[in-house]
Amino acid sequence: MISLRYLEHRMDRNDQPSAELAVLTVTDDLSTQVTGEHPNVVDLMLRVAAIDGSGFITFEDNPILWARSVHTGYRTPYLYVEITEDTFPQAAAREDSSDNAPAGDR
Question: At residue 55, what are phi and psi to the nearest 5 degrees?
Answer without folding.
Answer: 110, -160
